Amino acid sequence: TKFIKGACENCGATTHTIKECVERPRAVAARHSGKNLMPDEYIEKLELDYDGKRDRWNGFQPDDYKEVIDEWEKVEMERRRVKAAEMEERAKLKERLKVQKKALKKQRKQRRRQLRRQAEGRDTDTGTDTGADSDVQDSDTDSDTDSDSDASDDEDLGEKMKDFDKTTATVATKDDKLRTTTRNLRIREDTAKYLLNLDVNSAFYDPKSRSMRDDPLKHLKDEEKGSFRGDNFVRNAGDAKSLTELMIFAWDSYKHGEKIHDTAQPTQALKMWQGFKQRSKD
């Protein structure tokens, strides 16, 4: 092979120039050495019509997407395996807790029997009838104690099972696959705003936005009202009234030819408004 004039001076290929060459710069360029010339790249030129040039699925191979499907199938299999392992671990824990509960119940029964025998040994002067009555009472006490212990053990089992259940968390988790619920942040001790006044003609409550803009107890005195005065009460407190007056003053002044804007130049608008109020008082 021989170097062709107009080819890449670095690698010797004729399909690109030295500026477009992606090969590592050689110590001795192919133009000077004439050795190890790279072959020309195959550039495919398709003769496409108007629709073919704008076909967004042109060149798509369905077989290429099979790799994505296989990957997701592996992820699904791994998820099922982890879930099965968690369920198996949960079943083992439940079985261990049952065994512990039975052993504890057995120990309690043995302890009660020992105490009963000791009591019978001390009370040697009592009759057989009294002993029979005590046996009946002990059996009733045993059944009640067993039921109480079963209930407490079930509660302990539920608490321990919650430690393995990720979906019982009341806060948001970082795992996107877990479903979390949005809880209402209203304190349950406080009376709901729509229950403050049950009169149908009182303040309107919007259930969708959970807002009651008007005061439901406006017919009462201030000292008899509670802390809730309506959602608009907070919005109209503080400097809200003065800000509204400033905006109206700026609009009216702008209509009469003054160069004033309450948002672009708030300091200037405030000074002009204060001067206007001072002149009005004088």
UniProtKB/TrEMBL annotation:
Residues 48-280 form the Pre-mRNA-splicing factor SLU7 domain. Its main location: nucleus. Residues 97-163 are annotated as: Disordered. InterPro entries: Slu7_dom (IPR021715), Splicing_factor_SLU7 (IPR039974). It is found in: Nucleus. Belongs to the SLU7 family. This is Pre-mRNA-splicing factor SLU7. It comes from Alexandrium catenella.
